Amino acid sequence: MFQRLFGRERNANRAITDALYAQIVAAARQTVFYSDWNVPDTPLGRFEMLSLHMYLVQHRLHGEQGVAAEVAQVLIDEFFLDVEHSLRELGISDVGVPKRMKKLAKMFYGRTAAYDDALRQDDRVALAAALTRNVRPDAGSWPQAPLLADYVCEACQKLAAQPTESIVAGTAAFPAAGGV
Predict the structure, then answer these.
(1) Where are any strands of DSSP class E within 21-155?
(2) What is the C-alpha separation between 125 and 21, in angstroms, rounded?
(3) Which residue of 32, 54, 80, 128 is 20 to 30 Å from 110, comparing CA positions?
(4) What domain range is 9 assigned to?
(5) Is residue 178 one of the residues assigned to a domain?
(6) Cβ atoms of 132 and 32 closer than 8 Å
(7) Domain for residue 179, yes or no?
(8) In a 3-state reduction of DSSP, which class is residue 54?
(9) Is the dihedral of CA 27, 32, 38, 42 positive or negative?
(10) Which residues of the chain have pLDDT under 70?
(11) What are the CA-CA distances from residue 129 to residues 24, 42, 117, 121, 148 (Å)?
């Protein structure tokens, strides 16, 4: 069944990709991040939260084969298309978009490595430090970073407990930030 959905043609079932991406975006836009945890409500702050949630799904699907690997790739493609579209909406010229995309892709993959290291070592202090460097580089300290680190760990656990079949069928469940 899934081979028909994501087999040779990546866009064979846009509904699944759209549903997963919408859930990632909704999780990244939880108001507690911006209102209570002091994530900047700016284009860069929203990019950071979207990147973090995209990372969480990519982290969950890492090492999967077949349809799950295809879904992961389609989602990352969708993410970068969305970022490119956002840059254009912000008024970045056609000449400037590729340069900014390259920088944002480098930022995304750099963050992925930092978050992977901290999660692999089960080191919430290192995770909070990586989140501070990325989400609040302007702040000397960020008291809410441990809250976001706890959320990331909870999201990893929740996604890990979710069957792969459920994810590739279009459902990625994230926890409510702040336990709300």
Answers:
(1) none
(2) 29
(3) 32
(4) 1-169
(5) no
(6) no
(7) no
(8) helix
(9) positive
(10) 1-13, 101, 180
(11) 23, 21, 12, 14, 11
Residue labelled with tokens 């990519």: 58
- Could you give the dihedral angle defined by the CA atoms of residues 100, 101, 107 and 109, in that order, rounded to the nearest 10 degrees? -160
Number of folded domains that form the chain: 1
Taking the C-alpha atoms of residue 30 and residue 175, their distance in angstroms, rounded to an integer, is 10
Long-range pairs of 74-83 with CB within 8 A, sequence gap ≥ 24? 74/6, 74/10, 74/11, 74/17, 75/17, 75/20, 75/21, 75/24, 77/10, 78/17, 78/21, 79/21, 79/24, 79/50, 79/54, 80/105, 82/21, 82/50, 83/47, 83/50
- Tens-place pLDDT, residues 161-177: 999 999 999 999 999 99
Contacts of 51 (CB under 8 A, 6+ apart): 107, 108, 111
How many beta carbons lie within 10 A of that of residue 180, not counting itself?
A: 9
* pLDDT tens-digit readout, 120-135: 999 999 999 999 999 9
pTM of this structure? 0.86
Give the 3-state DSSP-derived string for 11-42, with helices as H, strands as E and coil as C: CCCHHHHHHHHHHHHHHHCCHHHHHCCCCCCC
Distances, alpha carbon 43 to alpha carbons 86, 96, 135, 176, in Å: 9, 16, 12, 22
**DSSP character at residue 7:** S
**Neighbouring C-beta atoms of residue 157, cutoff 10 Å:** 11
Burial of 106 by CB count in 10 Å (0-12 exposed, 13-18 middle, 19+ buried)? exposed
User: Residue 150 is encoded by which pair of tokens?
Assistant: 């706890």
